[in-house]
Design a protein that fits this description.
- This protein has two helices and no strands.
- By secondary structure, the protein is mainly α.
- The protein has a domain at 33-71.
Length: 71
Amino acid sequence: MIRAKTMAPISVALLTLSTEVLAHPSHDHSHWSSPVIHAMFVAALVVAAGAGVWAYRLYRQKSQQSIQVEK
């Protein structure tokens, strides 16, 4: 697991870089590829959230199994 000392600088760097990407001068919503790109972005967010929920449920299931084995 990543420790807090390592995670803080990485988080700051990622947050700083992401604002630079969104501020590029060619961000045009009227371009023909804009709906596809935005749909892929939303799909990626949905997949990431789903993976997080799945991992949490898997973790909870394993922790409940280990509690039952200890009893």
